Amino acid sequence: MRDNIRRNMPLFPIGIVTKLTELTPRQVRYYEQQGLIRPARTDGNQRLFSFNDVDRLLHIKSLMEKGVNIAGVKEMLKQSQQVLEAKKEAEKAKKELSEQELRRLLKRQLIHPGRPGQTHLTHGELSRFFRH
DNA sequence: GTTCTTACA
DNA sequence: TGTAAGAA
User: Fold this and answer.
1) Which of A1, A17, A38, A65 is least surrounded, with the fewest CB atoms within 10 Å of its CB?
2) How far is the CA of A39 from the C1' of C2 (A)?
3) What SUPFAM superfamilies is this protein classified in (predicted)?
């Protein structure tokens, strides 16, 4: 799991990122303002993006193209983090629980999906995350 | 030559 | 979001 430190390594300036993502510098900076990404900075205050940042931007781009607005993108990214955290917890559980206990847990999660603290949205609220 | 911030159409 | 100005 040493790959993550590489993926988070600040490597490319905004010019490279815009070519990689086909986003405009304006968009990239704006997304940073909205807290969707937080690229590192050089001594001269120039942004340096990691592979993760680029992936994130591509994800954001695809969502935007599907009509999801900033608020919606934020939620989606939150869910992505929750999924990752869930995976970590699952690995923990795998070590701490017996196979049998694990089966029971998984079965319960399948029957009661989104139990922990997920946001249940009504149809009306969902529209909040799309362009009007 | 690139990128940064701020401001305005 | 695009574009311009002035400073790194």
Assistant:
1) A1
2) 23
3) Putative DNA-binding domain
